[in-house]
Every structure is written in structure tokens, then in C-alpha cells.
Amino acid sequence: MTPVVTAFGAQIPQIGLGTWQLQGDILHAAVMAAADAGYRHFDTAPRYENEAELGAALRATGLPRDSYFLTTKVWYTDLSAAALLASAHASLERLGVEAVDLLLIHWPSPTVPVAETIEALVEARDRGYARNIGVSNFPKALMNRAQELSSAPLIANQCEYHPRLDQSDLIAACQNEGRAFVSYAPIGSGQLLADPTVTQIAAACGKSQAQVLLRWHLQQGVVAIPRSSNPARVRENIEITDFSLSPQDMARLSALADNDGRMYNPAWVKGWE
Q: Is residue 267 predicted with pLDDT exceeding 90?
């Protein structure tokens, strides 16, 4: 059974399936493998252009809707009040569900005031489009500002995180407020799999490099949503509860942090603080 992170009453399975760049038969196979392996957390977004396919795949698994945690998002160009509400409603129609478990702002807008966006996000929750709301790619100051403006708890902040990117300050800020930190690109988009430190620890543990990296997340109390198009690796990525990393190995992995470790830094981001 995958551990969960509790945030403002929401129970978020600590390992989820990220679906960015997964479509068609590849997405379907990944979802079926995930459901069979015990995944009960699935993450998508309109930007991934796969919400309808994910909804169909989830129905094909036979999993009851109330047995899994489903997240979608609103793209940064749709953060005016009317556009956000329209986006959220359209996501429900594509997914074929009455509500998602978590609706996130995908990226902050460089133009729409955050107050307008947060008010609309709360309204989406009040309308029943989402059971919970949160943000993604929000630095600490903006995350705190968003919560000040919100009459409902922002239960999660989803951000890039892996050993090459130090997010300890942001993670601490989330956890101190009872907010979940959700890690995307948790294995560094595959770029960390050949790292000598990761390889050495994996060999010593008798586990794969990806399993070691995901266990590093698990032991920090963060949620991770690895993506894979390979059903065998999808299954492998959740099989991480039968071993532990020592404090020394945890520290060795964290020491891989690099000032240039961020892999996703799109042009519309004004700054990370």
C-alpha cells in the first residue's frame, strides 16, 4: 500500500502517475499497468492534451472513482476569472468525471492579477468542480501571497524537484503550513539515472536508480509523480516501500544539488522568488 500525505484533510497517495507526453495506446498501457500495480493517484492537465484519453483509460481499469486521486490544472494563459472557470469545467467534461480531487494553477500568470485568479479558483471549488485546490510552480513568496488571498486552503504546490534542484526551503514552507509538496520530474527527467552517486546507492540497495530517487522523495514526506511510457518501469516506480535509504545516502543524494539544476524554466516565468 502506497503511503499517503495528508493535507487539510485530503489524502494524497505519495506516488502518482504523471502523464505529460503520454497519449494514445502508450497512455492507455501506462494507466492499466499503474492501476494493476496499485497506483491510486493520476496527474494530467489541459496542456498535455490527454484528459479525454486518461478519463477513458481510468474507466477501463474498472477502478471506482472514489478509489483514486485525480489532479488537473489550468494553463497560465487561462487565469482570468472567466477563462479559469471555463477551463476547469471543460476538463471535467473531457475527463468524464463530476469533480477532480485537486485543481491547480499550472503556472503563475505574468499578466493576470493573482487575486483574480485565486478568487476564481475558490469559486471553481465552491461550484463543485474540484474537491481541493492548489498551485503549481509557485515560489514561496507567491505561494504565501496566494494563500493570503484564498478563503479556502491551498492544499498543494506542485513543483520540479529532484536531487539536482534544492527545494528544501519551499518544501519546509509547505509542510509547516500543512500543505503537500508534489514533485514533478522526480527522477530528473531521466538525467540522473546515470549519475555515479545514484548508481552506487542503487547497487548497494539492490534497487534501480529510479527506485532510489523515488525513495529519496518518499522519505522526505513529499509526493512524487514520475512519468514513464514503459509499463514495466511504471510498475517498478511504485515498488519502493520494501527498503529504506540511510541518513548518509539521503545526504549524498541531496548533495547533488546544483545552482543550474533547474530543468524547466519557461520564458513566461518572471522569477523564482
A: no
Domain count, the chain: 1
Residue 211 falls within a domain, yes or no?
yes
The average pLDDT across 130-158 equals 98
* C-beta of residue 45 within 8 angstroms of C-beta of residue 84: no
Q: Please indicate, yes or no, if residue 216 is contained in any of the structural domains.
A: yes
Using the predicted structure, report yes or no on whether residue 272 has a pLDDT greater than 90: no
Residue 68 known to be catalytic: no
* Grid coordinates given for 175: 509542510
Q: What is the pLDDT of residue 273?
A: 66
Q: Is residue 39 part of a domain?
A: yes
Q: What angle do CA 131, 181, 140 make, to 5 degrees?
A: 105
pTM beyond cutoff 0.90: yes
Residue 135 and residue 104 in contact, taking contact as beta carbons nearer than 8 Å? yes
**The domain containing residue 192 runs over which residues?**
11-254
As a whole-number percent, the residues of the chain with pLDDT over 90 amount to 93
Q: Is residue 259 part of a domain?
A: no
Which domain CATH number covers 78? 3.20.20.100
Give the largest CA-CA distance in the chain. 54
Q: Cβ distance 253 to 217 under 8 Å?
A: no
Q: What is the pLDDT of residue 268?
A: 76
Answer for the pair 103, 121: CB distance below 8 angstroms, yes or no: yes
Give tens-digit pLDDT for 114-138: 999 999 999 999 999 999 999 999 9
User: For residues 218, 224, 228 and 230, what is the CA-based torsion angle, rounded to 10 degrees?
Assistant: 30
Which one of the listed residues 48, 76, 129, 161 is annotated catalytic?
Answer: 48
DSSP state of 60: H
